[in-house]
Amino acid sequence: MESTSGFDFMAEGDVDSEEQLVYLVSNTLFNVFWRGIGNDHPQCWQERGQVLGCINLLALNNELITSHLSLRLRILEMAVQASLFDLSEHGSQTHINQENASNILRMVYELVVLGSNEDESKKCSTKLLDGVLALLDALMIFQQGSSDDWSDMIRLYLGLLLKCSHHPNPGIVAMATAKLHAILQSRSTEDPAELSYLLYSINRALDNAIEVGNPEEYSFLMPVMKALLEKCRSAFNLDTTLPDLPSTSSGPVFFNDFQMYSTSKKWRNFMERMVKPLYDRYQREIELHLWEPINRFWAECYEACKAASKQRASFQATNRRVFQQKIYMPWKVRQVEEMQRLQNAALQHKTNDSHIRKKWKTAKRFLYGPRGPWFTGEIGEEFWKLSPHENVARMRLKLEPQLYPNKHENAANLRDNATSAYDTKEISEFDSTIKNAVVRDFLADDESSQLEEELRQLIDTQSQQDTALEKLVMSQDCELITLMTKVKGRIEVNQSVFTFVDMSPPMEDGSKHDFRFSINKIREVHLRKYNLRRSALEIFLIDQTSYFLNFTTKTRNKVFTKIVGLPLPNILYGSGRSPPELLRASGLTQRWVNREISNFEYLMYLNTIAGRSYNDLSQYPVFPWILADYTSDVLDLTDPRSFRDLSKPIGCINPKNEAEVRGKYDSFEDPSGAIPKFHYGTHYSNSAGVLHYMLRVEPFTSLHVELQSGRFDVADRQFHSIPQTWKLLMDNPNDVKELIPEFFYFPEFLKNMNKFDLGHLQITKEKVDDVILPAWATTPEEFIAIHRRALESEYVSQHLHHWIDLIFGYKQKGAKAVEALNVFYYCSYEGAVDLDKITNPIEREAVEGMINNFGQVPSQLLREPHPRRLTQDETAVKLLRSELKRPDLTQFLDKVVQYYCELSTPKDPIVYLSPPRSPPRSFLQLSPDVLVSVSKGCILGCNSWMSFDKEQGFLLEIDATTTNLKNRKRIFGPFHPSQPPHSQNFAVSTDGKLLYAGGIWDNALRVYSLNKGKTLASVTRHLDIITCLALDNVGSYLVTGSRDCTCIVWSIQGNQQSGAPPNNIPVHALTGQSHLQAITQLNTQNSYSPKPLTVLYGHDDAVSSVAIYTELDLVVSGSLDGTVNVYTLQEGQFVRTLKPIGCTESCVQISYVTLSYHGHIAFSALDDTSHSVHVYSINGASLGSKYVSGRVTGLATASDYLVVADDAGDITMSRLHGLKPVFDIPLHVPIQTVVVTPGNTHILAPLRDGRLAVVAVQLPLAGSKKHSVLNV
User: Fold this and answer.
1) By Cβ atoms counted within 10 A, which residue in 227, 447, 561, 1147 is the most buried?
2) How far is CA 277 from the centre of its chain?
């Protein structure tokens, strides 16, 4: 706009940012004021007034950074100039322009004259006054004969000039007085009121100038007074009224004379009597015609401004809500989703990197290992950690390779006060940008088959889709307890799948604790305590996996109810009974009394029922010290002096300590009365005690270092000698540590396999390494074997119930506990502390730490004395009375006899006999097991077997169809000519419905229906004939070995649980292995088809025998190359190679492999000169080797014994540890294979002459017939 071009503020030189802001805002406001509102609007000036009104309102709220007067002044300056421009462009006769000009002048008048602010410098400027004078001149309000009534404008004009005539700015005063003087000179007015108004106002200004001593202002005003007196001379007849008034024609003399005269009484009387009344009348007219309309105008503006402000606030609120709903909230949701996506992507990337690193580590370990193609001849240093897998007796036996080891060198340095080092972390061997490529090249061929990770994602995606289709039964936040760690997460359960989602940050290696399993796998659900609160659950699966989940006390029971309310086909315990009720209902005590289960098994059952768990170190299973002799060269297990007194707590076994313990209890008195009396301030089982014993095994080593603030404990306080530990227990009544289960099955915890620096003893300077053993044991394996035999000895069997009374029974609490010197610190007992009532998180954490440190007493299982176990002789008497069903023949080897049954013919002897399988049946139904036989001519027999019959001992009903040419069932392979049917070619499903067969000419794995005798499925994945196969005890996995030198692990879960989802397939399934895709697909795809999971490599010749143990995550394969390879089941990781000892390495072959429930690996070997049998522990320690007279035709295990059958007709039973023979059964006819029935009740041995030899405990029967064989 042209009128504002003269106001280029930026051109005036340098300005600060605040001044620049004021300039820009004032320009913007002016544009809104002048151009933003059209002149044709009826209320345009009220709206323009709102612009200035808003400025005043903001000033009242102190929201402006500059004076509101300055802003209004600048806007009015520009408005006056704009009005002048419009008048000059369109002429002064335009009514709208005149109206605009008059309204602007009123606003200027209100600011300059009526404004209440005393700071006159901010209310007027020379620019404003100059513009106003020009504007008034343009309006020609003093023009004679004008048709417009300008009386209000004249009053406004005169008021402005009078106000400016005594302004602090001399320039403004000069302009105002000059203009006033000119008006008086040029205008011929005779209105006495107007003249009185001017005269009175000028006189007052002169008085003020004289009073304050402002000669400059006086000099400006005197010409105006002189001209005014000239005008008033005739109107007031001054010559008569004031005859002595100085003459106005006297020039400069008048100025001085009037100054003297203005103080005279006559002048003052004139002003008061004649001028003042007229002035007052004129002033009232001004107020009436000018001030009141202006004030009314501004009042309306302010009201409109407030109304508009409210309307605007309401409009803003409405729009804010709409903005929130339509823009902000969707954006916020999208932002949260995007942040979550980014976090998930970062986590997925980290997890993927971790997965790739782990896979590369595993692959490298195999490739450079003794069975890998890049083996250099040197075996590198290995590091091991304890696997969480456990066997059916709840033994955690297995060590697994530690891919990211930590030798805790810094912890050793800190213990020794050496210069601080840091535990070196392994540097990645390749950058993340090439990891995928490296693994892809290793896993895939040129045709690029599916990667394992892609398959896992496919499985997960499919599972998620399947899960989404199912209704979610429950979702609940909880904590996963792992030893000493709480992992925050959430469980989600639907009708078929149980899922735990780890919601904690990932660990350094990117791993998380997520897990997922089919609810069909749930075997037991137990109510548990955690930190003495009844807030936890422990879930056991059929594969011996367990999970310990902590909830709140309010939600735990709801979660339990919903879980056990699901259809759980394999549930054994899930009724929600209390531990004592659960023990009574289980019948375990009577079974133990009758010697049907071992002492170890019974103690482990008691621990489990009482809430002791491997998953929580503060509630670790507790076992007794049983021996007192750790110094003799030979341990005599028949001498009672070799054993500890099990009727007393460990703290007072030494009679010297008994008085001290009793005196401590009697003399203790807590002044506050809060702490009850106690015998022992420590506990027999706590976190520190478990870590003390398990120091040498990861992850316990890391937990020990963490508990000791980042360092190893002093060497003298560490567990370094068993005899020394016992001696300290005897000498110190305050040390009451009992044992842990590992003392009876896990020799590796006594070895420093990871070569940790555990320090030196202070006195002897002896280096602490492996644990020092008693004199009667030379190796950790021998110690464990003897210690376990001691636990099962007659003395312990007869006295163990006393110790059970102390720990789990009626002597645990109350008066009997006091009498037995068996009272511990009150924090150890359930209900002593209510954590839910502690609201302070710091105090709560401290109490939790105290509970962990002191340990926790197990749940009390018995309130009356525990019954004694039967002696061996008493058991024999019961046996004679036929009161014992299915006796374990390993306990009655002196009463073992053999029976013979005609099962087949010499021309077609049985080559395979399955273990008795139990078909699905109702709870009360008593039906025989299925005993499947396959003859040399592939004739299939489904025989019935009962291991106990009141009248006949055992009952065998032979399948009559085997002799009926018309109805008999034959397995149609055809089998490869070089692979005649033998015992390792077949396996029967756990429900007795399916037969799996190898050795087929097309390299296939066949599945047959035993009922129909028909082929149900055929799957080809091997490149050569399947030579052997084995099924696990759970019925989930099958492993096959082949001439192609590989083994394949198959999932068969869907075959036996028709409705089960495929959720139990390990996520590491490698069905995408390259050669699997290359095979021509001649497969039947149905629900019976086994699903290949993992390919196992490492042999140089045909695989001859395989074994699998799902509970311990173990697969073992023997080969004609003379090696036995050990793998993990879930990941297919190569663990180690075992070789037969004492054989000619160049021509040795492995013929049979079997696994004991301990995980012992037994295998038979033959070379050019001999036949032999060898046993290794699950962790690769040799336990014994021996030569056998004939070629081995069958291997099996029965409890702690190895059963060997050979073609010389002998069945030999030997201890697995040391292979010491304990029993020999000569059958005099070559044996085809050997089978041990469940519970070790019988040994079944098909003979080459067609008969079946049944080895069993001789039972005294009423009739002469010892058994029954029926042809039906």
Assistant:
1) 227
2) 94
